[in-house]
Every structure is written in structure tokens, then in C-alpha cells.
Amino acid sequence: MKLSARELDALQELVNIGIGQAAGILNDMIDSPIRLQIPYLQILSPTDVQEELEHHLNGEQVAAVQLKFMGSFGGVAQLVFPTNSAALLVTMLTGEELGTHDLDSVKIGTLSEVGNIVINGVMGAISNVLQQRLNYSIPSYTEGTVATLLTTSGGLSADTVVLLAQTRFIIERLHIEGDIILIFNVNSFDTLLAAINQLAGGL
Questions:
Q1: What is the pLDDT of residue 102?
Q2: Which residues of the chain fall below pLDDT 70?
Q3: Which residues does residue 79 pair with via DSSP β-bridges, in sequence order?
Q4: CA torsion through residues 40, 45, 49, 51, sign
Q5: Are 203 and 74 in contact (CB under 8 A)?
Q6: How many Cβ atoms from other residues are within 10 Å of residue 46's Cβ?
Q7: What pLDDT does residue 12 have?
Q8: Which fold has domain 5-202?
Q9: Which of 28, 154, 180, 195 is deepest in the core (most CB within 10 A)?
């Protein structure tokens, strides 16, 4: 699916608004200011997304928080971290030292909360600005390879469109990177684009 420059810019702006809202909430959770940036956003087919993610993540194991959404448009949203970055982020947010007995349960709880905040920030911005109603499932946490992650999403059928937004987390001098993956089927994505174009036409 090819998007016009205006459609891509509008999607980028919507994601940036959501990321900004999420960063504000995360700033309230920790002493160190956290900034979230979106260097680039891509629209990919199911056949391209695995190769792109594996290249970006260098084949690393990943930790991911997944949230299903439904309403005017539906799909699956995932916040994906390389496992090393996930552990560093948990340490910064909780003060827990790496390797402590409770880190696994702490990590899952903390990353699930971060994922919930970021994904809801992005999806909330999209639904609010476009005046579309969305409902969300309870977030779930998984670890594994990119292939495992995409399989568990249950969303990568042949007619799926994938919106991939690389997110850079910056906490003081610590550089942590993760990826936000928004997955739509084609019909839902058409609904999203129609709402974007309607909004742009009214400006």
C-alpha cells in the first residue's frame, strides 16, 4: 500500500502526539527526565516486516508488550524492546539491580506498564484527533525471537498492513531503543486513512 506524503506526515504527527503524551506520564514515574523520539515511520507488508525488524534488532531476542484494539478500526499494537534494553529500562525505572531474584517478575510488570502507557498514548492520540472510538484488551507480555513475536500477534495475515514506528528512548545519557509496531488489516487501515484525509480536508 502506498501512502501520499500528506498521509504519511499526518500519521507521523499523530504518533508523535501520542509519544509526547506517553513521555509526560513516564516523566512522572521516575526522577530522571525521559524523552521519546520517533526518528522514522514506515508502512510495511507482512513479508517485509520480519526482515526489517531482524535487521534493526540484529537478530537479538526481544521483549514485547502487546495490546489488541478494536472499534472504528482494529488490530494489534506492540511495543518491542531488545532484551538488554528492556533490562536497562527496568533498572532505571525501578532501581532494581540486574540479576536480583525478583527481576523477572519486576521486569514483566514494569515493561507491561510502560507498554500500556506508550501504546495507549499513541492509540489514544489517533482515536481522539480522528474522533474514532477504540476499545482495548488487557496488555500481554512475551519474550522470544522476532518470528515468535509476529506469530503470537495473530495479526500478520496476507492482507495485513503494518505501521512500524521506530521509537528512541533517551534517559539522561542512557540510550535505549525500542520499536512500536501497529498492525492493521487492510480494511481497517483504509478506515484510518479515510479519517486522516477527512481531517486534513477540513483544515
A1: 65
A2: 1, 31-32, 39, 98-103, 153-156, 158, 172-177, 185-187, 201-203
A3: 65, 180
A4: negative
A5: no
A6: 16
A7: 87
A8: Chemotaxis protein chec (3.40.1550)
A9: 180
Predicted pLDDT at 173: 59
Grid coordinates given for 153: 500477534
Residue 85's pLDDT is 78
C-alpha cell at 61: 531476542
**Of residues 99, 111, 138, 126, the one with CA closest to residue 182:** 126
**Domain-wise residue ranges, the chain:** 5-202
- For the chain, the 3-state helix, strand and coil shares in percent, each to the nearest 5, are 50, 30, 20
Nine-digit cell at 124?
A: 489514544
Listed in order, strand segments (DSSP E) in the chain are: 34-44, 62-71, 75-82, 134-136, 140-144, 160-171, 174-185
